[in-house]
Amino acid sequence: MTPAAWKTWTALGLVYVVWGSTYLAIHYVVVGLPPLLTAAARFGVASVLLAGFLVLRRGGAAFRARLRQWAGAAVIGLLLLLGGNGGVTLAERAHLPSGLTALLIAGVPLFVVLLRLLARDLPAGRTLFGVALGFVGLAVLLLPGARPVGVSLLAAATVVCSSALWSVGSYLASRLDLPADPLATTIGQMLGGAAGLLIVGLARGERLDPSRAGASALLAFGYLVVFGSVVAFTAYSWLLGTTPVSTVATYAYVNPIVAVLLGAVIAGEPLSLTTLVGGGVTVLAVAVVVSERAGSRQPPDGERRGFGGDRGEPGTLEATGALETYVPEERQGRVRSSRT
After folding, report:
1. How many other C-beta atoms lie within 10 A of the C-beta of residue 149?
2. Rounded distance, CA 293 to CA 303, Å?
3. pLDDT tens per residue, range 252-267
4. What is the pLDDT of residues 138-187, one digit of tens each?
5. Is residue 339 one of the residues assigned to a domain?
6. H helices, E strands: number in the chain
7. Is residue 4 part of a domain?
8. How many folded domains does the chain comprise?
């Protein structure tokens, strides 16, 4: 194996495993810490770390942007992180299994295709078939048999709404005027999202007291900040600049599989036949949709401008996955555009 191939597979492995594991990490975080305030702290700390990296690499000039551009980044951050990641943390706090959460949030590309249709951007027939198949899979995942006894439909529906909000943020990321430097855009999105999470968390009566959290919650929080929001993010950035989009885009359907396996093996989350069928159909549909966009040699919408991947972070940011990241423009040959 050549050094280049070794680096590629290492970076892909990081994106697959780390972003796929963020859902499980959130599962442990919300057991001992308030969901929204913890998410606010996570993205606030991550934004500071990324800002330090950007200053060291490109200097303060990278942050030069108009107020309107920073406002655009903040709005997208609210949709992605408050609407997307915030909903995921609330659902997992309501005991929705992390694997099922990842399968439901994987529907982001399906919602983005619907937004393209509303904008009269007609996708290929294979993509439309994938979307229809994907919504069948999501409907199966919302059936009672996919959730453990005692977990309400509201928790699952919250994740579907989060997926829709994430897709709106991803879609707008290619259409709003944003800071010229992609990493500066990411930082603006993280700060905007963190501010929204903080305000809503305080309004809900949440109080952040790390002294009352267990070791597992604190370790999971550190993992989300360092690995979920920085390490995997950096690996994903490198991949977009060096690897075919068709290869990079595989994270969209690998991450949910990783999340389901980790949830079952580590957290002992149950896997019902309903979950396996609905999840399998959804992941297959996402693969169909993503492969069509990857075949056009364009990253999925939202993966070229700002935060992404981890929705649980998409994702993973969290999450996220999904994900929208820093790659020097001269290496991407890109226009001002974003995720599908």
Report:
1. 6
2. 12
3. 889 999 999 999 999 9
4. 999 999 888 888 889 999 999 999 999 999 998 888 889 999 988 899 89
5. no
6. 15, 2
7. no
8. 1
